[in-house]
Design a protein that fits this description.
By secondary structure, the chain is α/β, with parallel strands linked by helices. The chain has six helices and seven strands; from the N terminus they run βαβββαββαβααα. Helix content is about 40%, strand content about 20%. α1 crosses α5 and α5 runs antiparallel to α6.
Length: about 190
């Protein structure tokens, strides 16, 4: 059985250590722990992780955040993966730093990457893992905040958070969304 695991982010080096790239960094951690490397492919970099008889296609879209849906749609069609077996990893300013929330569906919450995915695949019925990046910004400064680097305290805490998110991805593929939500939400 195949799963498409998509980490949202922006493909330029200038964004690599920003809050908006938590999806990319999570997939980097999972790939490293699984001893696989990403290779360039159409619409992004991909890696294949095998886990308990399942194939997880990790995708870091090469489109910028607001066009992520094109990459997701392409890989869903290419690999014949239904929406219930995709898992989107993204940042969320409405959650405190480090908090994880996994859902089966939901609104885009103003997130341009999720808006693009919903537009391209025709709905919001797809699993997602949202990682809290906090909301420590002034009115009108949201874009600057999510595109800024982590502070020192956050950077030091990320390693443990990547481990938990990687475990959540593997759990999603092996025991399903419902049990994964019960185990990992609010961790």
């Amino acid at each position: 059985m195949k799963y498409l695991i998509v980490g949202l982010g922006n493909p330029s080096d200038q964004y690599s250590e920003t809050r908006h790239n938590i999806g990319f960094k999570t997939l980097d951690a999972l790939a490293s722990a699984s001893n696989v490397v990403f290779t360039p492919a159409r619409y992004g970099d991909t890696a294949l992780v095998k886990h308990k008889g399942r194939s997880l296609i990790l995708l870091k879209p090469s489109t910028f955040m607001n066009l992520s849906g094109k990459a997701v749609r392409y890989w869903m069609q290419q690999e014949k993966i239904p929406a219930e077996r995709i898992f989107i990893i993204t940042d969320d300013i409405s959650l405190p730093f480090g908090k994880i929330r996994i859902r089966a569906k939901g609104s885009d919450g103003g997130h341009n990457g999720l808006k693009s995915i919903q537009s391209e695949i025709g709905g919001s019925q797809y699993p997602r893992l949202r990682f809290g990046v906090g909301d420590d910004f002034h009115s009108g400064q949201q874009a600057s905040y999510v595109l800024s680097p982590w502070n020192t305290e956050e950077s030091e805490a990320l390693g443990a958070r990547f481990k938990i998110m990687s475990e959540a991805v593997l759990s999603f593929a092996s025991i399903g969304l419902e049990r994964t939500m019960n185990f990992f939400n609010n961790k």
